[in-house]
Amino acid sequence: MSLYECDGCTEPIRPDKARIQCHICTDYNLCANCFVIQNVSRSHINNHPTSIYKTSGTTTPAVPPPMPPRPVPLLPPRKDTLNGTPPKKVELPTANWGALWDIVKPRPKPAKATPSQKGSGSGELISISPPNNEDPYSYSNHSRNLSFSDSPITKLRPDLPPIPGKIELEAFTNPYASMAPPVPAEWSPFFQADGTQNAIFVDLMTTIFLHLDVENTDSLSPEVYSAFLEMQGVPMEDNIWQKTLFAEGGVLNQEIADLELGIFYKNHEIQHTLAVRHAAHLPPPSPSPTAGERIRRSISLGANMPMLSRQGFIDVMGMELLRDPDEGHRRLGGVVRDYEVWRELGEVPRKCFLEGKVEGKGGRGKRKSLLEMSEEKEEVERRIMEGMLRGAGEEVGMMGSSDGNDDLNTDTEAEGNMPAPDSFTFETTDEEERLIEEKEDLVGHQAERQVERQMEHGMQEVNLSDANTATIKKIPVVIEPVEETNWV
């Protein structure tokens, strides 16, 4: 139920007020005020016949008639199956399984590259081998000669892919790759003369990053980045994470490989974040752990796995391409070809890269590994401790002699003239700096105790080991007599 609406003033007409209805115009109503002042609209004119209702009332919408019930379908008369003829046998058409398998058969995955192919151009890394038409399990010459269309059983047994030994990257597996930047009209230089990245290089690296980030985490794990380098044909010597991982110990070196890659990112100021790698496979600690085991256990308790961000991926790729433009052209051209990135532009031309290396722009410097530095530090600590123990033994022997001061001076001068052990230079990390500070504190406390013992015996010179250069220095100590004072 609703009120009538005046077509003159468009106001609702109260049900207890008068209403004027036109007989010519369809659904045309006026209130009393608009009828008196001739406030009409649309096609209504004053000479149309009208009806005046003393009370307007309310509208009653038309109710559609109910739907008629559906007729019950008539069933055919039941036949007498006992006396009737048997039903005719109907032959169902057999399906062509070979043709059906051709429709639903998945596309073959790219075959794994052989070692000889990895060393060649990137265009040979991904290859698709044709299907094997021969059935190795056939037992007759007739079945060997069957083709795919003649042997549906062979079609129903798809070839199982081999189990990969390590991670493999496949192109066009990221559903978020549609968020990549637009494709440019043509290829243009990636860098300026000073090595600054142009916008086309940033867009290209962003597109490749989206293909690699299949989990949409906006970061690449060490496994993915290492596999990406291997796909380009990068040698093991330059693949830091993989080199450390497969050097010895296998998966037990994952934490050390993460730390090595994180140090590489930090040294070259590559943007990355640290995540926690759960290492439940570590064996229990031994009574005398080696340097590698101590490092592995110290870094397995916190965030140590470097996750390469999108900006970090752009920076590290730019650093590698500026380090060797010719090699970068070969590697990047293979990546663009394998992943079919911007394929409408064709092959990446050589003019997109600089003519030569830009000095001071990146580069993969040679550095000692963390294990090598730890072993060298242990050797330094061992030499220092041997020198301290040897000095302590000589001090005990000198205390029993009558001319202890002369012997001590002679031994001190001899020790001062001894060749100092070779100094070692390390690229320190936070863990290494903490170890060095602890070593300096230990040496300092031992030197203070030695000074106190020698001052008690009236000694004038003491030995002090410098923790930085492992050399022996002489520090004179002057002992002055103190006059007695009578206090009143």
Automatic annotation (TrEMBL):
Q: Which InterPro entries match?
A: DUF7514, Znf_ZZ, Znf_ZZ_sf
Provide this UniProt record's keywords sorted from A to Z.
Metal-binding, Zinc, Zinc-finger
Q: Which domain of life is it from?
A: Eukaryota
Q: Name one GO molecular function term.
A: zinc ion binding
ZZ-type domain segment(s): 4-39
Annotated stretches, region: Disordered: 104-142
User: Which SUPFAM superfamilies does UniProt cross-reference here?
Assistant: RING/U-box
Membrane spanning stretches:
none
A Pfam family hit: DUF7514
Q: Where is the DUF7514 domain?
A: 190-341
- The answer on whether this UniProt entry bears the keyword Metal-binding reads yes
Name-wise, this protein is Uncharacterized protein
Q: Tell me the classification of the organism that encodes this protein.
A: Eukaryota, Fungi, Dikarya, Ascomycota, Pezizomycotina
